[in-house]
């Protein structure tokens, strides 16, 4: 499984000062695959995700999307890409954030349109059509002209998803996208993600929703202490509980919610 | 009615000369408005330069800010109006000289305002801009500056009110703004209490009206943090 992988991560390492957050991560995601990353907090899940679009600069190893090294000109030289080049690489990935991060001065529609206009260079009319299409897909056509401050958390996050997928990214990165939401708003967001999975969107998501990860993803990766501790199809991974104590300890905390 | 106890208030001569105050008030507003515009441009350019520049440029910008902040405005007005033209071969009218002074003065304060405003833009918004593939300049233009503007609006309002009041200092170089108009009427009528009472009311009412308008604007553009 080499040439077919859309995202290929090899021996990735990353430290913050003395603290080595990622030790040596190997992970791949094939086109159309949905991969969930679970694990205790502090295990490096979010850092891993932020390395994929170079929001975090990684120290060692390699991350390739469609065969191109993400942050560096090539894998061997470690020469950083220029800012414009890097922006072009980042446009290949979409990201949805835990805290939504909608631009507060732009309406829902303008939030979705910004990247289409300035990065994809779409004409105004086409950008608006794409934005309206995606806002309708996330059930927010009627909120197109609302500012983020006028939307609920669940609505804001759905705009966040629309903003990311409207760019037609090769892979969508989802960073604990329901963690900041009130429990009753979680499902409206997860439903959108479920639909994207059905449509074949390639996704790498960090999540605490174990039940959701089990039924929505093709593969689950369990991270602990900066390493991939276990991975496999949801049912296979759950079966590993017998032999993997860390996984067992982690999942036991979710036993009330996991079915 | 001129009793021995004194002073009889009479506003008649204030009203007959009110055009001096009205024209002065307009000029004061104009001076403050032009100065905050130019000052905002100075402040913005230097603030953006500061956050992206090396040590030499930062030292230069800090030097400008500290100099202006530690010299009394009155002295700056004298330096620019009397001092500069004798050192270098330029000449300008008193109003132009004052606008230059007040703009430099406002610019120094606004550098600090904008600099902290740029720093206060939530990091998540910049991440969102990066993640969608905006270049650094695009992030500045479409994310950082609009957000910063909303964060700094209250400080901008306060600076504008301060500048409006500071225009009274232009009277020392005979710029016919509001305070100068008041002095002119006083010299002519000797109605010192009346003229300064009316002038004070004009400053307070105008300042309050400006502040009220700007606060409405702030509420409209408030950023959720």
Walkthrough of the structure:
The complex is a heterodimer of chains A (259) and B (225). With 259 residues, chain A is α/β, with parallel strands linked by helices. Chain A is built from nine helices and ten strands. Helix content of chain A is 35%, strand content 24%. In chain A, helix 6 links the parallel strand 7 and strand 8 (203-206). Chain A is globular and about 55 Å long. The model of chain A has no long low-confidence stretch (mean pLDDT 92). With 225 residues, chain B is mainly α. Chain B has a domain at 28-175: MetI-like (MetI-like fold, Orthogonal Bundle), CATH 1.10.3720. The termini of chain B are far apart. The mean pLDDT of chain B is 91. The A-B interface holds A 53, 55, 83-84, 87-95, 97, 99, 101-105, 114-115, 118-119, 148-149, 163-164, 167, 173 and B 122, 124-125, 127-136, 138, 142-143, 146-147, 150, 221-224.
What tags apply to this protein structure?
heterodimer, A: 259 residues, 6-stranded mixed beta sheet, 9 helices, globular, B: 225 residues, mainly alpha, MetI-like fold, 80% helix
The CATH superfamily label of one domain in chain B reads: MetI-like
**Order of SSEs of chain B:** HHHHHHHHH
Quaternary organisation of the protein chains: heterodimer
Strand arrangement in the largest pleated sheet of chain A: 6-7-8-3-9-10
Family (chain B): Belongs to the binding-protein-dependent transport system permease family. HisMQ subfamily.
Protein name (chain B): Polar amino acid transport system permease protein
Organism (chain B): Devosia psychrophila
Subcellular location (chain B): Cell inner membrane; Cell membrane
Summarize the structure.
The complex is a heterodimer of chains A (259) and B (225). Chain A has 259 residues and is an alpha/beta fold. Chain A has helices at 45-52, 83-90, 108-118, 124-137, 153-165, 183-198, 210-216, 234-239, 245-252, and strands at residues 5-16, 19-30, 34-38, 60-65, 68-69, 93-96, 171-175, 203-206, 219-224, 227-232.
């Amino acid at each position: 499984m080499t040439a077919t992988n859309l995202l290929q991560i090899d021996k990735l390492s990353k430290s913050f000062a003395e603290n080595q957050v990622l030790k040596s991560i190997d992970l791949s995601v094939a086109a159309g695959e949905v991969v969930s990353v679970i694990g205790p907090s502090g295990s490096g899940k979010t850092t891993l995700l932020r390395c994929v679009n170079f929001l975090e600069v990684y120290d060692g190893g390699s991350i390739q999307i469609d065969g191109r090294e993400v942050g560096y000109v090539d894998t061997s030289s470690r020469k950083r890409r220029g800012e414009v080049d890097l922006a072009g690489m980042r446009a290949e990935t979409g990201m949805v954030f835990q805290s939504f991060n909608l631009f507060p001065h732009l309406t829902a529609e303008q939030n979705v349109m910004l990247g289409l206009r300035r990065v994809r260079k779409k004409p105004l009319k086409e950008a608006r059509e794409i934005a309206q299409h995606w806002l309708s897909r996330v059930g927010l056509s009627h909120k197109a002209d609302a500012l983020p401050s006028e939307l609920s958390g669940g609505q804001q996050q759905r705009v966040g998803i629309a903003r990311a997928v409207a760019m037609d990214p090769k892979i969508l990165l989802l960073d604990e996208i329901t963690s900041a939401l009130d429990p009753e708003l979680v499902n409206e967001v997860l439903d959108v993600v479920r639909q994207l999975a059905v449509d074949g969107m390639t996704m790498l998501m960090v999540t605490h929703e174990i039940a959701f990860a089990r039924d929505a993803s093709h593969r689950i990766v369990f991270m602990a202490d900066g390493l991939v501790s276990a991975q496999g199809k949801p049912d296979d991974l759950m079966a590993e509980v017998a032999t993997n104590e860390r996984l067992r300890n982690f999942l036991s905390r979710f036993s009330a919610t996991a079915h | 009615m001129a009793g021995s106890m004194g002073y009889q208030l009479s506003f008649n001569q204030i009203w007959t000369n009110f055009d001096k105050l009205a024209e002065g008030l307009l000029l004061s507003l104009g001076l403050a408005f032009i100065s905050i515009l130019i000052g905002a441009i100075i402040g913005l350019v230097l603030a953006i330069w500061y956050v992206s520049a090396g040590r030499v440029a930062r030292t230069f910008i800090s030097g400008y800010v500290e100099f202006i902040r530690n010299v009394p405005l009155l002295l700056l007005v004298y330096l620019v109006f009397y001092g500069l033209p004798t050192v270098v071969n330029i000449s300008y009218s008193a109003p132009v000289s004052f606008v230059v002074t007040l703009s430099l003065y406002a610019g120094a304060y606004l550098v600090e305002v904008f600099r902290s405003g740029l720093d206060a833009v939530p990091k998540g918004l910049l991440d969102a801009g990066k993640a969608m593939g905006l270049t650094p300049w695009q992030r500045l233009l479409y994310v950082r500056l609009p957000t910063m503007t909303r964060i700094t609006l209250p400080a901008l309002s306060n600076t504008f009110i301060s500048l409006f009041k500071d225009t009274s200092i232009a009277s020392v170089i005979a710029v016919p703004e509001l305070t100068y108009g008041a002095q002119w009427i006083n010299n002519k009528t000797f109605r010192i209490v009346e003229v300064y009472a009316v002038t004070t009311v004009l400053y307070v009412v105008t300042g309050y009206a400006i502040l009220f308008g700007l606060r409405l604007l702030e509420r409209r553009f408030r950023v959720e943090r």
